[in-house]
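DATA SHEET
Item: assembly model
Revision: 1
Owner: S.N.
Input lines:
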Amino acid sequence: MSVQAGRGGERDPNLWRRNVRASKLRERGVTTLFAAFAYLSILTTFGIVLVLIFETINFFRQVPIFDYLFGTTWRPGFARAEFGVLPLIYGTLLTTAIAAAVALPIGLLAAIYLSEYAPTGLRRWLKPALEILAGVPTVVYGYFALTFLTPLLGNVFTGISTFNALSAGLIMGVMIIPTVASVSEDAIYAVPRGLREGGYALGATKREVATRIVVPAALSGIAASFVLGISRAVGETMIVAIAAGNLAQFGGPLESVQTMTAYIVAVSTGETAAGTITYQTIFVVGATLFVMTLILNILSIIFVRRFRETY
Amino acid sequence: MSESQTEVATRGSGPGEPEDKTAFKNTSNNRNLTDKLFTVLVTAAAFFGIVVLAVLLVDVFRDGLPFVDGQFLTSLSSITPENAGVYGALVGSILLIVLTALITVPIGVGAAIYLEEYAGDNFFTRAVEVTISNLAAVPSIIYGILGLGLFVNGLIVPGMGPILLAGALTLSLLVLPVIIIATREALRAVPGSVREGGIALGATRWEVTRDHVLPSALPGALTGMILALSRALGETAPLIVVGAVTFATFAPPISPEALFGRYGALPIQIYDYIQRFRPEFKDELAPAGIVVMMVVLLLVNSVAIVLRNRWQARR
């Protein structure tokens, strides 16, 4: 692969010499290495599933699966321990429902504003400003719920518990607004202009176009944002661990409840020796949580794909 | 849509001609009022979050700022509130983030380059993509459980115990999907002509990527990375699960030995102060810790913005 240096006939061995073999080798090396990095994500997923399954099997050797799934008392670490997960699932669903009641409507309306109403300049800074909400560490939200919102709610609802589902759920809802708003806005913004103009041509007002043409057209993307927001709420940990308390009971919104995530944190703060049944509960509850969020995440991926296909 | 059709018909009846009030009902006044109310509603919804954020910041800073002083920043955790501080936790957090960055940035960028520049559209690539977007939505506490089962106690290989390295590896798995997604988006924004130009001059794919595509994608990627890492800085739940100490009565040494020692972290220290029995901890030290954490986050994010602006100015 040597190239003659042209006139004069002198040959400089360093000129115009290209080591194709080394290039090819390097190319192959880079590809293999980077492919391995990419496949690491599949490995991580397998790792999660494997770790969860491993200890879960150990747990179900000692506790019947029926008692776990349908038991109504969660009392591990006691002499007569009981492992019914329903109170924890109830706590999770209650705080999630409160958060969803805040985040879904406000998030969707904010998305409509950002896409349809906001002037371009305002939109450019409002979107990143909203994203800051999602970047605030969750301990900070937990502190805010416990020391600011709960006393405030105490003025309205006398007899509210220091740790309660309502305050934690409301703040969790605020945290999730950007998730819902940003995914919804992407879907709403992607609706073709022609559909809006068709609506205006028929004499519809701006609101009518937004709510009866644009939103229905973006429905699958909006559904994806809702599901993703709910999944965030189900998996959120520190806000509920700090502000919703640690009582595994079927309490009302003004009372203390314990979510699955809060339980895992509560167990982990104490030193729990590997191999004990209390240690295994971390993994069983984690597996339950993982399955719930996995179903929600797959749903949202399906919804997103559908809306991408449409436009 | 019947209302709007009615209105069109009314408008279409032209000037001069008397309207048939029984056939056409002009609803435009009502509809315009609803429209105005709706505009107010969506605007309020969009600014609601911002208002809450402002209230939160004011509240936290008003609670905490008076208690942030030299003594607080240089003291370790203690059972007496007058002597307690965040120094050990702060050092632990900084070490954690530096280590996480060292692990995730090369791997994340490599994976993103592979997916964006090399991989063909086949089953495996699609599987990796779905896996990554799912991993990005897995609750952070699940990563803590993964780290507990895999790194701390060991599943196939023996565990390493609740050491700093285990914490950093756990955080790395957590932020990796976010870094990959951000870098891919930045790579995708580089126009195809840059690649074609390089290839036409005889450069290999890797040379084109290294010398042309990556440099122009870097500012965007960098911003995404720093945002992801600053998220890791505030992560609490996974570190609690992998056994970071809640009571940082020591600071990890600034040396490689720190990797194999125990550690505290700022958000965990805050959580611990909120939980303590004596009210000074919750009412004074916790918000002071939050102020320190928020300031660190702000600094990290400003660095991201400055870096990006500089890079863009130079090009």
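QC remark: The beta strands of chain A are 74-75, 82-83.
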